[in-house]
C-alpha cells in the first residue's frame, strides 16, 4: 500500500513533467492566438492589448501555477518562469514564425514585464485558493475573451518627434548642397550605432533631389530593396529643408520586418527635415528631426524604441553630412 510519503515523492517526481506539459500548452495557445490574429487582423492584430499584455501574463501565470502544486516554491521560481517562456517564444519566432530581429527585440521586454505581473498574481492566488489548478486553467480563456472585445476599444494615439543635432566645422554654404541629397554614400561613411551595426537596420546608400523648391522630391535608397520618397514641403536655402515621407515603394520593407512597415495603422512615419543654425567661426549646427504617429496600447513603450532606432539613424546621417562637409 502506498504511504503518504510515497505519494508525495511520486508527485514531486512529476513536477518536471507538469512543467513541460504546461510550457507546451502555453506555446500551443500562444501559437493559436498568433494564427488567429494573423487571420482576422493581419495588419494590426499583434499590436494589441490581448497579445502584448494579457497573453504573456496569463501564460506565465499558468505555467508557474502548474509547476507549484503545493504552493511552496519560492519567489525565485516564479520570477524565472517568464524568462523560460520568453526564451521559448524567441525560439518559436525565429524557427517557426520567421519573425524579424526587431520584432523579437521589441516584444521580449514587454512579455517579460507582463509575465512577471502574471506570475506574481498567480502566486498570490495560489496562496489564497490552495493547491487546486482549475482556477488557473480557466484563465487560459482570458486572452480569447478579450480578443473578442478588443476591436471595440479605441487605441490611444500619440504624435512623437525624434531630434538629433551635430556641430559641423563648415559654413552653411558648404552644408546646404549635402542636405539636398548625397547620391553616392560609400561603405564605412557615417558612424557606428547599435541599430544599424548590431540589430541590422539598413544603412543609406544615397538620396537624390528631383526638382527644386517646394514640391520637389528626394528619392532615398537604403539598401535591401528599401526605397522611399520625401516630398519637399519647406524650402529655405541655407536655413531649412523639410519634407513629408512617401512610402509608395513598400515591397522592400518586407525584408526587414513585416510588422514594422512605416505606414501601418499603428506606426506611421510622417515628416522630417534639416535645420541649419550658423554659429560663427565657420561652424554650423545641423539639426535633423523626424515626426511619426503611434496608435498602440503601449505608446510610451513604443516611443522609447523609436527614440533609439530613429535617433541612431539620425546620428548616422548627421555624421555623414559632417564628414562630407569637413573633408
- Give the domain tally: 2
CATH class of the largest domain: Alpha Beta
Straight-line N-to-C gap: 89 Å
Strand adjacency order, main sheet: 1-7-6-5-4-3-2
CATH architecture of the largest domain: 2-Layer Sandwich
| Alpha plus pi helix count | 9
Please give the share of residues in helix.
40-55%
Oligomer: single chain
Structural class: alpha+beta
Low-confidence stretches: none
Major sheet description = 7 strands, antiparallel
CATH-defined fold name of the largest domain? Alpha-D-Glucose-1,6-Bisphosphate, Chain A, domain 4
Order of helices and strands: HHHHHHEHHEEEEEEH
Beta-strand content estimate = 15-25%
Report the C-alpha radius of gyration, rounded: 26 Å
Specify the overall morphology.
elongated
Question: What do you see in this structure?
Answer:
It is a single chain. With 327 residues, the protein is an alpha+beta fold. It has two domains: 4-152, no CATH class; 157-326, START domain (Alpha-D-Glucose-1,6-Bisphosphate, Chain A, domain 4). It is 49% helix and 20% strand. It contains nine helices and seven strands; from the N terminus they run H-H-H-H-H-H-E-H-H-E-E-E-E-E-E-H. The protein has helices spanning 4-40, 49-66, 75-95, 101-129, 134-138, 142-149, 172-179, 194-199, 299-326, and strands spanning 157-168, 206-210, 217-221, 227-236, 240-246, 267-280, 283-295. The protein has a seven-stranded antiparallel β-sheet with strand order 1-7-6-5-4-3-2, with helices on one face. Strand 4 and strand 5 (240-246) form a beta hairpin. Helix 2 (49-66) packs antiparallel against helix 6 (142-149) and helix 7 packs across helix 9 (299-326). The longest helix is centred in the first third of the chain and has 37 residues, at 4-40. The protein is elongated and about 75 Å long. The model has no long low-confidence stretch (mean pLDDT 83).
Amino acid at each position: 500500500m502506498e504511504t503518504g510519503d510515497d505519494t508525495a515523492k511520486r508527485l514531486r517526481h512529476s513536477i518536471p513533467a507538469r512543467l513541460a506539459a504546461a510550457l507546451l500548452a502555453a506555446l500551443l495557445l500562444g501559437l493559436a492566438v498568433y494564427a488567429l490574429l494573423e487571420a482576422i487582423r493581419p495588419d494590426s492584430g499583434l499590436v494589441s492589448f490581448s497579445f502584448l499584455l494579457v497573453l504573456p501574463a496569463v501564460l506565465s501565470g499558468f505555467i508557474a501555477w502548474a509547476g507549484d502544486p503545493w504552493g511552496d516554491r519560492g519567489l525565485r521560481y516564479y520570477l524565472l518562469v517568464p524568462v523560460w517562456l520568453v526564451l521559448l517564444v524567441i525560439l518559436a519566432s525565429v524557427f517557426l514564425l520567421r519573425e524579424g530581429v526587431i520584432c523579437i527585440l521589441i516584444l521580449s521586454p514587454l512579455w517579460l514585464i507582463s509575465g512577471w505581473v502574471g506570475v506574481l498574481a498567480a502566486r498570490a492566488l495560489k496562496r489564497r485558493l490552495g493547491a487546486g489548478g482549475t482556477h488557473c486553467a480557466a484563465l487560459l480563456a482570458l486572452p480569447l475573451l478579450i480578443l473578442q472585445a478588443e476591436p471595440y476599444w479605441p487605441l490611444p494615439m500619440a504624435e512623437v518627434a525624434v531630434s538629433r543635432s551635430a556641430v559641423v566645422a563648415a559654413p552653411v554654404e558648404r552644408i546646404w548642397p549635402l542636405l539636398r541629397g548625397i547620391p553616392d554614400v560609400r561603405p564605412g561613411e557615417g558612424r557606428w550605432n547599435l541599430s544599424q551595426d548590431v540589430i541590422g537596420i539598413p544603412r543609406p546608400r544615397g538620396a537624390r533631389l528631383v526638382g527644386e523648391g517646394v514640391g520637389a522630391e528626394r528619392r532615398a535608397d537604403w539598401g535591401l530593396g528599401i526605397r522611399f520618397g520625401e516630398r519637399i514641403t519647406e524650402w529655405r536655402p541655407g536655413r531649412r529643408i523639410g519634407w513629408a515621407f512617401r512610402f509608395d515603394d513598400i515591397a522592400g520593407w518586407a525584408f526587414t520586418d513585416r510588422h514594422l512597415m512605416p505606414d501601418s495603422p499603428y506606426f506611421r512615419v510622417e515628416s522630417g527635415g534639416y535645420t541649419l543654425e550658423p554659429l560663427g567661426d565657420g561652424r554650423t549646427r545641423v539639426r535633423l528631426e523626424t515626426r511619426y504617429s503611434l496608435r498602440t496600447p503601449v505608446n510610451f513603450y513604443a516611443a522609447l524604441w523609436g527614440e533609439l532606432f530613429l535617433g541612431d539613424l539620425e546620428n548616422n546621417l548627421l555624421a555623414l553630412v559632417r564628414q562630407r562637409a569637413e573633408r
